[in-house]
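User: My advisor, Dr. K., asked me to get a structural model of this assembly before our group meeting. I'm new to this, so sorry if the format is off. These are the inputs:
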Amino acid sequence: MTNREIADKCIAEFKAKGMDKSKVMINDSEVRELYFNNGDISMLRTTFNTSVQLTAIKDDKKGATSTNKTDDESVAKAIKDTVSLAESSNPEPANDISEFQPAEEFCDGVMEADNDKMYFRLNEFLNHVKTAYPMTQLREGGVSYHKSTLILKNSNGVDYAATGGYYQFMAMFSSKEGEKTSSFNYTYKLLKELEEPFIEAVNLKLLLEHSKDEVNARAFDQKFEGDIIITPDCMGSMIGPVLGHLQDYAYITGTSLFKGKLGQKVADEKLTIRSSPVSDDFAYKSFFSGDGYKNENLSLIENGVLRSNMLTLFGAKKTGMERSKTNGACLSIDGGNIELDEMIKNTKKGILLSRFSGGHPNDNGDFSGIAKNSYYIEDGEIKYPVKEIMVTGNLITMINSIVEISKEVTDFGYTKYPWMKVSGITISGK
Amino acid sequence: MLKYDLSKFKKEFTEYTELRVQENRTTNISLVNGNVMGNSTSAKSGVSARVNKNGNWGFASNPVISDEAIEKVILAATENATFLGTKQSKGKKEFDSRAAQAEKSFYSDKPKSETKAKIAFLKKIDEYIVSKYPDLTSRTLIISGLEMEKNVLTSDGSNSYSMMPKFHIYAILNKAVDGENYEIFKTFGDRGQFEDVFKSPEDLFSGIDEAYRHLIDKTNGVKANAGLKDVILDAKLAGILAHEAIGHTTEADLVQGGSVAGPLLNKEIGSPLVNLVDFAHTYNGKTCPVPVYIDDEGVEAKDQIIIEKGILKGYMHNKESAKHFGHGLTGNARGYDFSDEPLIRMRNTAILPGTSKLSDMIASIEDGYYLVQSGNGQADATSEFMFAVTLGYEIKNGKIGKAIKDTTISGIAVDVLKSVTMVSDDMDWDCTGMCGKKQPMPVGMGGPAIKCKVNIGGK
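Assistant: The format is fine. Below is the predicted structure of the whole assembly, which you can bring to the meeting.
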């Protein structure tokens, strides 16, 4: 039986058991991973999996289960469990499934892994680092190939299927000089092909150069309010919590810092954040949401104005707001009009923030954490790598205090971020 | 129950091989402001094999569990190791062995609590919160359960079966005051299935009352004064200190990767008051939160002393790292899902109790902080760690003062451990969180209250 036929059978079974609405998602996935450990390729891993996610709603009561089996017995048990969960739940009018849309199939990316090419590129990278960066220890990482075939069907007749494949390169490393160790750092990129050496990916050369210097990171005892230049590698951890305030939980609990702000200015006008799940500019695409709607490319914040929330169907119905037309995949921040070198030259006193190791910001958006793999900037010059430095600020203040955004934008394959300078951050040493 | 006799597949092993059949089951029910927002279960099972041939590892997995599929997975893992062997030869590896047989299950013998009963359990707590604390802006209650059931067979003679469950209830209370939002997070739970961990909703009411008091304290809280400060880390935080600050740096794969712990073996890295152990399964005659009897490489798990009276005494190992360092096996290799290879993971990492009383420790600080509850944490090869503090108080002239707003603390582990001057005589264990290191993993952590110096974020 094909996955489509299994899905049809599940939907028919849910109907026969008295369910008002149902949704079935079945995903066949394959991962091939060449893994390195302490500088040597140590393992080839191939895994296959299947995920069957079932949702059923009766009298506004919802149940959901997942299994990774498609045999008759396992699917029958999953259906029974889903019905039982729905029947034992509480009514919630916001529970729903997407309405009918014409059936569509999508296909994108690499359809078959090239084991030899994966080995060649990874081995080439490891040898290059050993030669060019002898102080650097490649702790772990590798190249992996990911392929999935996902179908989504529901009892309203929604019928979507998407097949996609991509490579992913990842490296985690630190450097050592005698007994001195640098803070670990890492980067990764999603790729459509393996034509370019991994050393050319993202900002890897810069990060490896910095890693060497960071064995001599220095602490300082100052406390001051200054600028931080958030690097593309660090941007996700700073912007992610901001976007969390656009999602279901924040709105439903009333804790969103963007409550009632749709269409209003919420950030500095230099900030434009996009979600482009179906753009050819990324190595990965997400054609439809888990709710069963086709994704669209759109701006979340455009020139500082909040253009879209990131609400699911449930979140939208629960709050009476509009459902988002993106599931938030493939995020990017538009580049600005200044070169990075110039941005650094314009900085009086601050930190080049390359990695943020911090606690999750509180409900008011206050955050604090350690500046890792980061550098002290004074009078327009990068002075030295720092350690034991805390940065403290507020998410909303941060996006309203953007001084400059770089022209240069780093492509991680699933996100694209520039360097961004923000003022008014408390920077404190020991 | 997923108990599978794997012994018949031993004849399929042609190289060093680990074979694992595993199922992970999860339960998630969430109630937001009294409404069921999430109600789901999942079951994920399959078979995996890991083979070492001439120093190269091959790994393969499949969700189908049948004799035929198991044989295919063993073959595929062997072929993967062979493929790497065509590219690079590392020489045959002979690992030390401490093979054992064991069966350990924490299935409850009580009648199974159905979903309806679990929702009713949460509803009862929710009704209590609403009736007693109507001033809250929102409340969230979550039941989160994980059951890991494993069968492991290895070519060096181990054969084991285990079922390790843990269930927790998370309560998140929010209150807005003057346009500012405040949140408190309280966890309840332990190792065991829901029926064994949670007897009655009323048992949680005093914990809810305490959480509310803390929330009110936070609404009147002040920002911490940033910088290096004298602090008392409550027993609840000592576990995360043990895990993040020292535990990760002494995982042998991180040591091989250059962590600062490498050159510090048998050297002083902390005050003589500091003793730190990664317990396999039992502490003081009681089963630890995340007991491991035989790990996923088939090694009988033993306690590993990490720090003894301030001296770094050892690392946590898998077979490969134990061979590399010439150390004994510890049994620290575990994989999260059936499709995950075993990695070096902590089990129950704890700082051992001392002799001081918490009240005396607080009284000994003129100007500092009493840090009570933690959020997420992170480690580093340099041993510079951080973790979020979601509940803490000022200490002024030896007395507890105002609550502080959420912040982060950090430090270099060796510096912090050397600054320890008092260790309390009590002990708190926890297995709420999951450790992240390529794969998630349940871990136990524990400790007493500790007086030390850390860097605190703030104004």
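One thing worth pointing out at the meeting: The longest strand of chain B covers residues 35-53.

User: Perfect, thanks a lot.
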